[in-house]
Amino acid sequence: MEIIEAIRNRRSIRQYQDKPVPRELLEKLVDAARFAPTARNVQPWEFVVITEPETLKKIAALADNGRFMALAKAGIAVFCSDTKYYLEDGCAATQNILLAATGLGIGSCWIAGDKKPYCGQVSELLNVPPAFKLVSLIALGYPMSADNLRPAEKRSAKEIIHWEKFT
Ligand SMILES: Cc1cc2nc3c(=O)[nH]c(=O)nc-3n(C[C@H](O)[C@H](O)[C@H](O)COP(=O)(O)O)c2cc1C
Question: Are 92 and 43 in contact (CB under 8 A)?
Fold first, then answer.
């Protein structure tokens, strides 16, 4: 899939087929993440790939807006060490994963991590040392049905683009 096509086709998928995501594709997603830009190239990230249904359910129970993680076929938790730009770096990696998933035909949804009260509990559940901050949780699985995919409305390019100066 061409890059602009993947960017335009990506949307948050919260319902999944009962079909596992192969391990080699999960590895590809993390591989795509590591090519994201990072401030001063510090690459502060670590990725916990989750496939055990019990663990996915426990994360779903913690994440108030991520209950659908219980039905996901896999998840990736993005952590960063506490660097100055950890959040930007972790978000860039997260977006790479979402776009790579789209390119591979895998549905994904970003679930908030940073600033959420459940960060500590997710870290504990996944045996992540306290020095690392949870940036995001990503639910993954093959999309349930194309019919369910009503795209989120996006502001038009015309409305948001400002040439040379804002006003
Ligand atoms: C930082 C961030 C946190 C998000 N957290 C959640 C979340 O906790 N639960 C959820 O269902 N979606 C979450 N989303 C997904 C957004 O709801 C979604 O991207 C938005 O509605 C636009 O839809 P689209 O992704 O299909 O374009 C999050 C997205 C971002 C960027």
Answer: no
Distances (CA, A) of 114 to 65, 95, 100, 111, 141: 13, 15, 22, 10, 23
Q: Is the CB of 50 under 6 A from ligand 1?
A: no
Is there an atom of ligand 1 within 6 Å of 11 CB? yes
Distance in Å, CA 148 to ligand 1 centroid: 16
**Residues 116, 134: Cα–Cα separation, whole Å:** 9
Ligand 1 centroid to 138 CA: how many Å? 10
At residue 143, the 3 state secondary structure works out as strand
> pLDDT tens across 23-48, in order?
999 999 999 999 999 999 999 999 99
What's the pTM? Answer: 0.97
